[in-house]
Q: What sequence folds into this?
């Protein structure tokens, strides 16, 4: 599980930025998140939410709501919040072409359009750890060998 205190069915969003965040920017984002979630509601009820960083480039947001799924308006609010912090912090969290891989302790961000060349030249192998930006639920694996990902299966099937 990505967030130990949220249910396995909680909604998860993964945002990857090419630009790294330093500790000051991370603190700024945490403060902004705490302000945002204090009034984040779905169907009129408070959304229980958490966030975390993976290294200095990946932001993960998890949200749990009692009862029905989180409403579209609440999802839109969360995306607008990410858009605001992206602009305020000069990061590109909403660029879905950013793809993250973990090499030992180093996180590398690549443009999606370069993945095939990186596989061909051996930079990325079937066992390279991939940050799964396709996560949608808290029970999904956030880090997995590239070949086990939906994106990696195209190259390693």
A:
């Amino acid at each position: 599980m990505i967030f130990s205190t949220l249910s396995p069915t909680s909604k998860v969003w993964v945002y990857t930025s090419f630009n790294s965040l330093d500790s000051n920017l991370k603190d700024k984002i945490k403060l902004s998140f705490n302000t945002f979630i204090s009034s984040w509601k779905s169907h009129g009820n408070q959304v229980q939410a958490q966030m975390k960083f993976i290294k200095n480039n990946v932001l993960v947001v998890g949200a749990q709501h009692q009862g029905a799924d989180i409403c579209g308006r609440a999802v839109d609010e969360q995306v607008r919040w990410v858009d605001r912090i992206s602009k305020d912090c000069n990061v590109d969290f909403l660029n879905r072409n950013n793809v993250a891989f973990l090499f030992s302790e180093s996180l590398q961000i690549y443009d999606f359009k370069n993945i095939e060349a990186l596989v061909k030249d051996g930079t990325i192998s079937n066992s390279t750890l991939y940050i799964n930006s396709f996560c949608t639920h808290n029970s999904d694996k956030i880090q997995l060998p590239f070949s086990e990902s939906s994106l990696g299966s195209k190259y390693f099937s």
